[in-house]
Amino acid sequence: MTGAQAKSEIFWTAFKSLTKKERTVVMSRFLTEREFLEDLADIGTIERRRSERTVSLEEHLAKRNQKR
Fold first, then answer.
1. Per-residue DSSP letters for 13-51?
2. What's the CA angle centered on 43, arms 64 and 18, to 5 degrees?
3. What's the pTM?
4. At residue 7, does pLDDT exceed 80?
5. Do residues 37 and 31 make contact, with C-beta atoms less than 8 angstroms apart?
6. Is 12 within 8 Å of 4 (Cβ atoms)?
């Protein structure tokens, strides 16, 4: 387990031990943080697009240059 995984496990365990009201307060705090919301949106995009075919940089640039 990496250090990041260990820290996240500690955080998750602590979060689960909170009451529903306390969890709501924590989540409300997260949702007021712009950087967190941007990260959450990025994760959502990654998960939605996970099954898409990978395109190499060279292929992307070739397609982009054809459109010009």
1. HHHHHS-HHHHHHHHHHHTT-HHHHHHHHHHHHHHHHTT
2. 170
3. 0.61
4. yes
5. yes
6. no
Best CA proximity match to 16, nearest among 2, 26, 29, 28: 26
Q: How far is Cα 55 from Cα 34, in angstroms, rounded to an integer?
A: 30
Rounded to whole angstroms, the Cα distance separating 21 from 27 reads 10
Residue ranges covered by each domain of the chain: 3-67
Q: What is the pLDDT of residues 20-58, one digit of tens each?
A: 999 999 999 999 999 999 999 999 999 999 999 999 999
Q: Pick the closest to residue 24 from 15, 36, 33 (CA basis).
A: 15
Cα separations in angstroms, 68 against 46, 58, 61, 63, 65: 28, 16, 11, 9, 5
